[in-house]
From TrEMBL:
Enzyme class: transferase
Membrane topology, from the record: Single-pass membrane protein
Transmembrane segments: 41-62, 288-312
Chain positions recorded as ATP binding sites: 391
EC number: 2.7.11.1
Keywords: ATP-binding, Glycoprotein, Kinase, Membrane, Nucleotide-binding, Serine/threonine-protein kinase, Signal, Transferase, Transmembrane, Transmembrane helix
Gene Ontology MF annotations: ATP binding; polysaccharide binding; protein serine/threonine kinase activity
Descriptive protein name: Putative serine/threonine-protein kinase
Classification via Gene3D superfamilies: Phosphorylase Kinase, domain 1 (3.30.200.20), Transferase(Phosphotransferase) domain 1 (1.10.510.10)
GO cellular component: plasma membrane
Domain Protein kinase residue range list: 363-640
Length: 692
């Protein structure tokens, strides 16, 4: 084989994860017993595609990728997985957020919104990395004392977290303090600056030291005998970050090197003959086996094509009226219920078809509110005067019937102020299946951000933050009850608003009840493009973190007023989640934020938006375990809102905001406390990490 051909194989294999079709077989066995023939055919099709991909993957796995030997950069030696040096090691040698850049023989971590950081040390045993700001580390603590931070440290990436082993070095501006541990930093042309060496980073501290002063907090790594007057050396000495990554022990023990497949977004073990899932195989590459598997794959494709032709012919001969099919499906679904009616078994009121037909004025098109996923939603008024929303099931569709049944089952037992209320449904003997909800009059969040109402009304930032908190509260309730409920279709179109802009989360047709003690459910991916968890789409495993990913997209919509998917945007920006992650990593958050929100003119709004953007960034992590749970997200959002209220209360009556505005004008962007800090300790709730 030519060198060019070998390089192509290397590229293919380095991006390929060899997986077995057995998990999908499990899906087939699970669903075949409870689905229609149409569902079975769909799953058989998916299985065949997965099987074919499995064969083709094996057939091209002929050459191993380049080795991921440890590399050095300056004083940083033996850099290896999960870290990797850009330009010295292939990008599959480490986890993407752990990229180290070697600039002029200096290892750099180019990740912060405010500054670049020099990597001083990596501890693979303790899972820590020590970094220091370039502006302080290069001078080894010998710099102008006036050049102290004016901002709080803010990291916009995961999974690195500021370690609680650091201490807090606090700088205060435009105030005075009588504490003996506080020193003054005289600077020409500036008002008083103070410095104070506090306790452990992230733990509750005494805000009374500086009162209502404007403060900037930096983590520093303590050393014996360190005093606050040594703040230049403390800044140059850097601080610790904690990191976690998939375990590499099994791979190394089998003779392989650990890496990360950027296409499949998963760990891979790089072995002498090829890449493997977790560890190297004891066998060796067998060309005859590869040829045999390739032939088997080709035969499978031929059989699959023949099978499809037979199914098409059978499908054309199948003639059933829509009414008889619907009745048969309804009888099948309800036959297993203990009561005579589904509604009664769930304590859900039963409405007659005639009453709802009358309430909607014969389902007049002028009363149509929109599409509700598996049916059309109409506005109606019941005989008792209640204004309601009525969802009418589309005919002759098993999947939509299943969603109808699912929504009744779930909503009939849920009670929460931010979940839409189900008033009832029609009888199974009714000529049509209808659901009756409370009417929420002010449209959806999507309507106000980038839909039909966006030109008529503008949502200010405080309203958007309130929407985020209330939506997270509703999802936290769903995830905390037993059995746990995964919404599976979290999006701005399913977040309704009343006239006071209070949230009502709706549309539970795709939701799933989680078995107690289960970590995931294996199921075919469903949801709305732009919101579906990539890990769920790739592994067919639904978890509570799937809702967290979707909620991260919602947060980005609230910040940007942009839809989750927009085909008119540039190719690499069609997906809002991808665009947002790229802009945050390139420190271009200001380009993402809706310019009408006051991000560039109001320091408080700038601080809150940056914190929410960081939180959304964590929710959008590709690997499930890197995302926070929804309870952590809710706590962080509440902390952001509460912190700003408290900050404004403390500043009322003084002119500190004038100085802040001057600082903001001279230094951009603004930099609030990182939301990651709140997961270690939150001053608004508790000093311990939230238990999901």
């Amino acid at each position: 084989m030519s060198a060019a051909g070998q390089n192509i194989n290397h590229a293919i294999i380095s991006r390929t994860k060899i997986s077995s079709p057995l998990p999908l077989l499990h899906d087939l066995s699970f669903y075949a017993s409870q689905s229609s023939s149409q569902m079975k055919l769909t799953l058989i099709f998916l299985y065949s595609i997965d099987l074919l991909c499995f064969f083709l993957t094996l057939s091209i796995a002929a050459n191993p990728p380049q080795n991921c030997e440890p590399k050095n950069c300056g004083g940083l030696i033996n850099v290896s997985y999960p870290f990797w040096i850009k330009g010295l090691q292939p990008d599959y040698c480490g986890y993407p957020p752990f990229e180290v850049t070697c600039i002029n023989n200096t290892p750099m971590l180019l990740k912060s919104l405010e500054d670049d950081y020099i990597v001083l040390n990596i501890s693979y045993e303790q899972g820590t990395i020590r970094v220091a700001s370039v502006r302080y580390a290069r001078n080894h603590g010998d710099f102008d004392g006036c050049s102290v931070p004016y901002y709080n440290l803010s990291f916009s990436f995961a999974p690195l977290k500021i370690s609680s082993a650091n201490r807090e070095l606090i700088f205060a501006y435009n105030c005075s303090a009588d504490e003996p541990q506080v020193i003054q930093i005289p600077c020409a042309g500036m008002k008083s600056r103070l410095a104070y060496l506090g306790g452990r980073y992230g733990f509750p501290k005494d805000d009374g030291v500086f009162g209502s002063c404007y403060t900037a907090v930096m983590p520093v790594l303590d050393y014996p005998g360190a005093k606050v007057k040594d703040y230049p050396k403390l800044l140059a000495n850097g601080f610790l970050l904690n990191w976690t990554a998939p375990d590499c022990t099994e791979c190394r023990a089998s003779g392989g090197q650990c890496g990360y497949n950027n296409d499949t977004m998963d760990f891979m073990c790089i072995c002498p003959n090829r890449t493997y899932w977790r560890r190297c195989s004891k066998g060796h590459h067998n060309t005859a086996l590869i040829i045999g598997i390739s032939v088997a794959g080709a035969l499978s494709l031929a059989l699959f094509s023949f099978f499809c032709l037979l199914l098409c012919r059978r499908w054309k001969r199948k003639k059933l009226s829509s009414s008889s099919l619907l009745n048969r499906m309804v009888s099948s679904q309800w036959s297993s219920k203990s009561g005579p009616e589904l509604g009664s078994s769930h304590c859900t009121p039963i409405f007659s078809y005639e009453e709802l037909y009358e309430a909607t004025n014969s389902f007049d098109a002028s009363n149509e509110l929109g599409d509700g996923g598996f049916g059309t939603v109409y506005k109606g008024q019941l005989r008792d005067g209640r204004v309601v929303a009525i969802k009418r099931l589309y005919n002759n569709n098993y999947r939509r019937l299943e969603q109808f049944m699912n929504e009744v089952k779930i909503l009939s037992v849920l009670r929460h102020q931010h979940l839409v209320t189900l008033y009832g449904c029609t009888s199974r003997r009714s000529r049509e299946l209808l659901l009756v909800y409370e009417f929420v009059p002010n449209g959806t969040v999507a309507d106000h951000l980038h839909g039909s109402l966006s030109s008529k009304s503008f949502l200010p930032w405080q309203t958007r933050l309130s929407i985020a908190v209330q939506s997270a509260d509703a999802l936290s309730y769903l995830h905390s009850i037993e059995p746990q409920i995964i919404h599976r279709d979290v999006k701005t179109d399913n977040i309704l608003l009343d006239n006071n802009f209070q949230v009502k989360v709706a549309d539970f047709g795709l939701s799933r009840l989680f078995p107690v003690d289960a970590t995931h459910i294996s199921t075919c991916p469903q949801g709305t493009p732009g919101y579906v968890d990539p890990e769920y789409h790739r592994c067919y495993q639904l978890t509570d973190k799937s809702d967290v990913y979707s909620f991260g997209v919602v947060l980005m919509e609230l910040i940007s007023s942009k839809p989750a998917v927009d085909m008119t945007r540039q190719r690499n920006e069609i997906n809002l989640a991808t665009m947002a992650i790229n802009k945050i990593q390139r420190r271009e958050l200001h380009e993402l934020v809706d310019s009408r929100l006051g991000f560039d003119s109001d320091l408080c709004i700038c601080r809150m938006i940056t914190q929410v953007a960081e939180l959304a960034f964590l929710c959008l992590q590709l690997e499930t375990e890197m995302r926070p749970c929804i309870k952590e997200v809710l706590q962080s959002l509440r902390g952001i809102a509460t912190a700003e209220i408290n900050r404004e209360d403390r500043r009322e009556g003084d002119d500190a905001t004038v100085e802040e505005a001057r600082l903001l004008k001279g230094f951009s962007p603004c930099s609030p406390n990182s939301v990651m800090e709140a997961w270690v300790s939150s001053s608004t709730t508790t000093s311990s990490t939230v238990e999901c």
